[in-house]
Description:
The complex is a heterodimer of chains A (301) and B (66).
Chain A: E1 12-14, E2 19-21, H1 23-40, E3 49-54, H2 58-69, E4 73-80, H3 84-101, E5 105-109, H4 110-114, H5 118-125, H6 129-147, E6 152-154, H7 159-171, H8 175-180, E7 184-185, E8 194-196, H9 204-213, H10 230-244, H11 248-264, E9 273-274, E10 281-282, H12 288-300
Parallel strand pairs in A: 3-4, 3-6, 4-5, 6-8
Antiparallel strand pairs in A: 1-2, 7-8, 9-10
Helix pairs in contact in A: 1-9, 2-9, 5-6, 5-12, 7-10, 7-11
Chain B: E1 2-5, E2 10-13, E3 18-19, H1 20-26, E4 34-38, E5 41-42, E6 48-49, E7 54-59
Parallel strand pairs in B: 1-7
Antiparallel strand pairs in B: 1-2, 3-6, 4-5, 4-7
Residues 275, 277-278, 280, 286-287, 289-290 of chain A line the site of one zinc ion.
Amino acid sequence: MKCRKCGEPAILELRRHNAAFCAPDFVDFFRNQVREAIRKHRMFARDEHVLVAVSGGKDSLALWDVLIDEGYRTTGLYLDLGIFDYSVESKAKCEAFAARRGVPLLVTRVAEAVGAPVPVIKNVTRRPPCSGCGLSKRYLMNRVALEHEMAVVATGHNLDDEAATLLGSVLHWQTDALSRQSPALPSTHRKLVRRVKPLYRLSERETAAYAFLRRIDYIVEECPFAKGATSIAHKEILSRMEDASPGAKHNFLFGFLEKARPAFERAEAVTLNECARCGQVTTGTVCAFCKLADQVKRATV
Amino acid sequence: MKVILRNPRREVELAGGRRVKDVLRELDIIPETVLVIRGDDLVTADQVVQDHETIELRPVMSGGAV
Lengths: 301, 66
Ligand code: SF4
Ligand SMILES: [Zn+2]
Ligand SMILES: [Zn+2]
């Protein structure tokens, strides 16, 4: 197989693009896709300070790597979930990356913010671990960005993540979730920062290849709770469809974003209040994060 | 050839002199779901792996909620 750009031997075939690339041309292709995402959705301006949420995995570290090389001013945020060895190792990967690239990294511990680490939250709430974990992550990213006066948080969500989320929402016709699914969520309240996903045009095989070729030392082992997650089941289904028909995932997600999403945009806007407890944005009186922290406190004292 | 699989890490020994594509089929692995690594390089599905060589099939899926 030959590189589409230069004709040298290829190292990666991208069936959905009907192309193969050598290493330097693939890295170029990857960076172009990120640039295109940022431009198309006006994710952030040249001079904006971007908070990059990093997990130690391939996606978020690949994202951080591209943004640094593109000359953006970035700060990493690692949320320590307290998930056994997985958290210890993934934190070490983020710290090593930040040190190597000479960029600042913030670390926030969920155990401190909520009152207990993710495995304990899971037991207390008797809900799937990803539920309390996801809630805490979204809340803390926003809070840390506000505290440091950054207007935008970038996450490493890739094409597969987005397609799997879309499939999950469609299977249950969660119209609320469908209206919110977007590569860039604008701030709709002064206490909500913009959330952007600059890797949404790239598959996870592509982000893995980028991380490998750039010699980024990322954590290959998964969070021990990921196994049972429904999003993984959805990814497996989508991979089979992709195998049978290259481009299926891309068409599913991009078709939704371009043609279907506008139909789900809420007719009437929800009212956003500030949580009586912490001041962060909520649709009720007390936000879901504060309720979770209360529940954890009651169960663990 | 030696094939390294991850999550959990394990190794299997298979007959060499075959294309990556055929190795993946024998192991029932969808090509989209792995990177094929040989030494410091990635290899495409049409490449032949020799008997004395080692390849790693590294899963690319990551997951959970965000
Ligand atoms: S898999 Fe679930 S529990 Fe593990 S880090 Fe992701 S969201 Fe959290
Ligand atoms: Zn090339
Ligand atoms: Zn609150």
